[in-house]
Specification:
Number of domains: 2
Number of strands: 18
CATH superfamily of the largest domain: Isopropylmalate Dehydrogenase
Number of helices: 15
Strand order of the largest sheet: 15-14-16-13-12-17
Low-confidence stretches: none
Helix content: 25-40%
Distance between the termini: 69 Å
Structural class: alpha/beta
Mean pLDDT: 91
CATH topology of the largest domain: Isopropylmalate Dehydrogenase
């Protein structure tokens, strides 16, 4: 082992008055978040950018105790190191620590007490400009026996800031005006809170279609503000679906949103009155903490076992959505269980056919490759290990699944095991549709509204 793989102390007898030790550390945003999580200190000065801008320092600042903890790091790991027992500490905090500040911690032996092996240290922290940040005294009981141990390797930590990712997703519509959206039967907490939250964020102007008394009762129970929202009274969910769809067909609403009714009720009306020449399909947009960009999954909600012809529409719908999201040429990974084409697995034959159709211009605007197993679609390392040469492998924007079952399982696994932030939209109809499940949060519903808002504005630009 190299020397830095060990942790070794200095005993009481080895330390002399005037001896020093130093530690240099730069404050990163993740340090602030991790310290807040560990300590529970969520003072908005440290974690709320908007609040911090209006505060004393005009920016996010680090916890003062983070700097103090660095002093403890020196004392506990090096000077004196293992075997040290903290006795007391007194600190003075002179200036805030801001993101990017580099602190130099200097610990100096001030006095020794042979009676109990206590040592008093002068403690000083200065930033990169030499400005004093912290000073004070620390008293410890120093070890009297030499200790040398292998340094414990701590696990990597990934901080998933869901709120920040949610705000980033909403930012794709910055500067766009809200769109009128017809909300079908929002008669429970989640289905009503979604459009309310989306309206508050400036994404949509909800037209609530359903039994008015029930809608207002839910709003009153959970404290939702419905001021300024149109409510169209209907007797039951069937009537709600029919009326909400008619608003879209008549051009009075630019999008449709499912509430607390069965999907078949609403989609039956959609198929009857809002169909186009395209096959209707669904796309999940997943912001996964461990993937460098949002990724689309299609179709995991509408088409159960699509034919090759239906898959052409499904992939084209997803590519068009990618264009709306600002991806000039979306990379489409057509998933299967293997990377080779075999007559024993139909999805590999479909993948090969879809790629050739793209070569012939029957699918436009994207780069297709398949069949690809999931690991090869999202991991360059996995693709290279298997010798796969592909412009799509390891950097897919769209995952096209073989059937609804596999797609639904994949999407739910990303959401519940990988902490993905999910949004979803139905494509191929005359208007975009927010199709949510009963378990979806208001956050998911609002994020989905951001996507349809963007789609509506892109369509307006195309027809201007």
């Amino acid at each position: 082992m190299s020397q830095n793989q060990f942790i070794e102390n200095k005993t009481y007898d080895e330390i002399q008055v005037g001896d020093t030790a130093q530690l240099v550390r730069t404050l990163r945003p993740s340090d602030i978040h991790l310290f807040a999580i560990m300590s529970g200190d969520v003072n908005p000065t440290h974690v709320d950018t908007e609040f911090a801008r209006s505060g004393q320092f005009r920016e996010i600042v680090g916890h003062s105790m983070w700097g103090s903890a660095l002093i403890s790091t020196v004392l506990g790991t090096e000077f004196p190191g293992p075997g040290t027992v903290y006795v007391s500490q007194s600190m003075n905090f002179h200036r805030p620590i801001t993101v990017g500040d580099t602190l130099t911690i200097t610990i100096t032996c001030k006095a020794k007490h042979d009676r109990d092996h206590h040592i008093v240290f002068d403690c000083l922290a200065v930033n990169q400009d030499g400005m004093k940040i912290i000073d004070g005294l620390a008293e410890v009981q120093a070890p009297t026996e030499k200790i040398k141990r292998a340094r414990i390797q701590l696990p990597d930590i990934t901080i998933s800031d869901r709120e920040q990712r949610y705000r980033h997703l909403l930012s794709i519509t910055a500067g766009l005006s809200p769109i009128p959206i017809s909300v079908v039967h929002p008669c429970d907490k989640e289905s009503l809170s979604g459009p309310v939250q989306a309206a508050k964020a400036g994404l949509v102007e909800p037209i609530l279609v359903g039994p008015e008394a029930r809608i207002r009762a839910v709003a009153e129970e959970f404290g939702f503000d419905l001021n300024g929202m149109t409510i169209i009274d209907t007797p039951h969910s069937h009537a709600s679906a029919a009326k909400a769809v008619s608003l879209c067909a008549e051009g009075k609403a630019d999008a449709l949103m499912k509430g607390s009714l069965h999907t078949d009720e609403m989609m039956g009306e959609v198929v009857r009155h809002l169909r186009t020449e395209r096959r209707i399909s669904h796309v999940f947009l997943a912001d996964v903490p461990t993937y460098p960009r949002p990724i689309m999954i299609t179709d995991a909600a509408v088409n159960i076992e699509p034919t090759l012809e239906e898959k052409v529409h499904i992939v084209q719908n997803a590519i068009d959505l990618g264009h709306d999201l600002g991806i000039a040429e979306p990379k489409v990974a057509i998933l299967s269980a293997v990377e080779t084409v075999t007559g024993k697995i139909r999805s590999t034959l479909d993948a090969a056919a879809l790629c050739k159709m793209a070569d012939r211009g029957q699918i436009k605007g994207g780069l297709l490759d398949g069949p690809l197993a999931f690991d090869n679609a999202v991991s360059l390392v996995a693709a290279k290990t298997k010798g796969i040469q592909s412009v799509v492998a390891g950097q897919a924007d769209i995952l096209m699944v073989p059937d609804l079952e596999s797609g639904n399982m994949l999407a739910k696994q990303l959401e519940y095991l990988a902490k993905a932030l999910m949004a979803g939209v139905v494509l191929g109809a005359r208007v975009p549709i927010v199709l949510t499940s009963r378990a979806d949060t208001a956050e998911t519903r609002a994020a989905s509204c951001a996507i349809v808002q963007l789609m509506v504005h892109r369509r307006r630009e195309q027809h201007a």
